[in-house]
Specification:
heterodimer; A: about 325 residues; alpha/beta; Glutaconate Coenzyme A-transferase; 9-stranded mixed sheet; globular; B: about 280 residues; about 30% helix
């Protein structure tokens, strides 16, 4: 079946039940897709979904997000990415992202680097179904001159002051990881949500993974936590520890130990094939069993509570 | 009390934070994070602070694994990055944000994108996230460097990820932009640029630093007043807060280490963070 048939089959056969297995993700995301990725920095990228696309070998992908990290780097390392649209790709304390850096320096992938708020504005324009949105000009930045396909100088029709038009960026599919979702696709966050809610409105199709699928009653008990309503969502996948080894606050903090192992393997051409092959050949259940033994699981949960808030002198 | 140079830089940056605008934690700038927490714990308890998606966050202890969760727990509101950046960054409410670029030149242009030609870079750097918009729109901009050399402070950046223009007050007012300077803070000195007509001038030298050392390690021309002030050194209270409460793991030293020392340092922090979390009762 093609992607549209799968989505339609899910809708028609199950009514408002959009739940699919993680193993079906490859049917929802064809090779060559432009994917908008949720999360930001080392927080809440849809890592279980990335691992599944990696198992399925879904390739020729165009990945787009404002603040990427291990998600983009791992997919580039697996050879599944042909293009990245971004404003940052970083492993922060764990260094430059090895695969992304090598691929860009070697010309192996195409990149479009935009200033961060322009890229966010591009997603916003898409969500409003208009071709561009205006933004204030960017001083000495070379991005407008270098990326004329994305930035155009325009004049404010009212005052004549010069502005930038930022072209809409419409992902074929947004893949986002949320705290909990109902079978109808209503998604709640308890922690950082990056630009996931806005991203969900910009894409042609939205696939969410969630820590836990809950009934509609649970959603309705606290609707103020619902940041993405179900009508925007096409498929719901349960994936516990779905952002691991990155954070999903308040459930778990950063698995810096797995991230450090990743960074070391990614930087070492001898070690990387072993790391990659293990991810490719194990199921998501097997991944959790291997990478998250009880002591590690306990520690990363506690890390989400370990950091202190402070009160100061005379407060 | 003896202070480290990163602590002196933290205290200098902290001075710029107050309740007149919003201060925001930018991408992976641990030294700046420490400054903002210090300001909140001392002279500026009411300064509105944003980190991650935590709006009006409490000051937090810095760490590799747990800072995000702490920020979220102590927040007054949770917004998406777009709600935050459209209303604070682009909305003209940003007071202070720091950038930590690979290169900066005398025009104030900075580079977080590439070393070498853009299309065939020698080193592809992480990129700038929202720093082009931040630097253009905020009231006060601070670029900090872990070392002061002609490798970072260059004649011309390899690529201008961003840079404030105009800088002078009048043209900024005409464009409805907040008025304020661009600073560069390094282990040697504080440099400032506050008009388009002139380049950077030396605002202060750190204790024991000679003018000639700063000039010869800077890749663009500098001016200096006849009497150059000395940068204020940290107080005992500031040092105690930094070491005992704000940054007990020492994340602010990160920018001052070479790659090998950095790896050992991270191992050490991770060991300490693991031990603390492992010893916690289950929640």
């Amino acid at each position: 079946m093609g992607t549209d048939e799968v989505v339609n089959a899910v809708r028609s056969s199950r009514g408002v039940n959009k739940v699919v297995a993680l193993e079906q993700l490859g049917e929802l995301v064809p090779s060559g897709s432009l994917i908008g990725l949720g999360g930001a920095w080392l927080s809440n990228h849809p890592m279980a979904a990335m691992r599944q696309l990696l198992r399925d070998g879904v390739g020729d992908l165009h990945l787009a997000e404002t603040m990427g990290s291990m998600d983009i780097d791992m997919m580039v390392g697996a050879g599944l990415v042909s293009k990245v649209t971004f404003s940052m790709v970083s492993l922060e304390a764990f260094g430059l992202p090895p695969h992304f850096r090598r691929a860009v320096q070697g010309g192996a992938i195409e990149i479009t680097e935009l200033s961060g708020l322009a890229l966010n504005t591009a997603f916003e324009a898409a969500s409003r179904n208009i071709p561009f949105l205006p933004m204030a000009s960017l001083g000495l930045s070379e991005f407008p001159a270098r990326q004329p396909e994305w930035y155009a100088k325009i004049d404010d029709p009212f005052t004549g002051i010069d502005l930038l038009a930022i072209k809409a960026l419409v992902p074929d599919v947004a893949i986002l990881h949320v705290r909990r979702a109902s079978p109808a696709g209503d998604c709640q966050y308890d922690g950082p949500m990056a630009i996931d809610p806005e991203m969900s409105r910009s894409a042609k199709r939205v696939v969410v993974t969630c820590e836990e699928i809950v009934s509609a009653d649970v959603i309705q008990a606290c609707p103020q936590m619902t940041k993405i309503p179900g009508f925007l969502v096409d498929a719901v996948i349960e994936a516990p520890f779905g952002a691991h080894p990155l954070t999903h606050v308040p459930l778990y903090g950063l698995d810096a130990w797995e991230l450090r192992d990743y960074a070391a393997s990614a930087a070492d051409p001898e070690a990387w094939p072993t790391y990659l092959n293990r991810l490719r050949t194990e199921s998501e259940d097997q991944y959790r069993e291997r990478v998250l033994p009880p002591d590690r699981r306990r520690v990363i949960r506690n890390l989400a509570r370990a950091g202190k808030t402070l009160s100061g002198v005379g407060q | 009390m003896n202070y480290r140079i990163d602590e002196l830089m933290i205290c200098r940056i902290a001075r710029e934070v107050d309740a007149s605008g919003v201060t925001v934690l930018g991408s992976f700038t641990p030294l700046a994070y420490a400054s903002y927490m210090l300001a909140k714990l001392t002279h500026a308890p009411d300064a509105p602070l944003i980190g991650y998606n935590a709006i009006g966050m409490s000051p937090i202890e810095l760490s590799l694994t747990s800072a995000e969760a702490a920020a979220y727990r102590g927040a007054a509101a949770h917004w998406t990055f777009i709600e935050n950046t459209q209303s604070v960054h682009l909305g003209g409410r940003g007071l202070v944000e720091c950038v930590s670029p690979a290169q900066m030149d005398g025009t104030g242009a900075f580079n977080t994108s590439v070393i070498g030609p853009y299309d065939h870079p020698k080193v592809r750097l992480p990129g700038g996230t929202g720093s082009p918009e931040v630097v253009q729109n905020y009231e006060k901009i601070i670029a900090y460097f872990g070392s002061h050399s002609t490798r970072g402070l260059v004649d011309k950046v390899d690529f201008a990820t961003g840079g404030r223009f105009p800088v002078s007050p009048e043209p900024r007012r005409r464009r409805n932009l907040l008025v304020g300077p661009v600073w560069i803070i390094t282990p040697l000195a504080v440099l400032i640029k506050d008009t388009d007509e002139a380049g950077f001038r030396i605002e202060s030298l750190h204790p024991g630093v000679e003018l000639e050392t700063v000039v010869s390690n800077t890749g663009f021309p500098l001016t200096a007043p006849d009497e150059i002030p000395e940068t204020t050194v940290p107080t005992e209270t500031q040092l105690q807060l930094l070491r005992e409460q704000i940054d007990p793991f020492g994340t602010s030293q990160f920018d001052f280490l070479d790659a090998r020392a950095r790896a050992e340092y991270i191992d050490d922090i991770m060991g300490r963070e693991w031990a603390r979390a492992a010893a916690m009762p289950d929640g």
